[in-house]
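This follows on from our talk about sequence and fold. Go ahead and set the record down below:
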Amino acid sequence: MFRFLTLITTLFFCLATSSPCNGQVGGVSIDPKGILQLTPAVPSKTDFSPAPPEVAHRNDSRHLSLKRLEATILEHQRLQRPLPVEIRYLAGLQRIEEVVLLPSENDAILIGPAAGWTRSPGGGLVDPQTQRPLLELDDLAVALRFSIASNQPSSFIGCSIDPTDAGLKRYARYLRKLKGPLDSQRFPSLVKGMQQAMGLQDV
């Protein structure tokens, strides 16, 4: 447990004192009134860094040592150097399928499919063949933090979109007023009416 706490502290310190990943702006945004809105993706203007040869090849079972990852981060901190892209993108890992614990070595190995990367139209780094996004060091830091959280109920990472009571009542009234056959020509207006009746929801 101590090793993981040390690693998490190292990761967060590193992320707080280094430049952000080559990413993109897009997805959703929340305005000052608390309204969730779609945000168009804007390609990143930062220079593209291709995957180094040692991680560019496709591998269905790439192994990533957390102990070595921590050592590399600490060394770059000591030298005041920015983290290389292969560290920030976890050697091209796309997901974690297995975790092997090595207590005798104070290490844990993350195992999963990995490959090189290219820039997507939205600006993010993805697998050139599958377009699957890469895991990021930020993702790992957040996952580790929540995995050892003392308050388990509040450590759940997720999002819910909940209709309001008023919206449900308007929606029910709208459905009761519907008359006539439901054919494909009416679908667009029906969907629009349902959306307007439900209104804004709590996220």
User: Anything to note?
Assistant: The two ends are 34 Å apart (CA to CA). The mean pLDDT is 78.
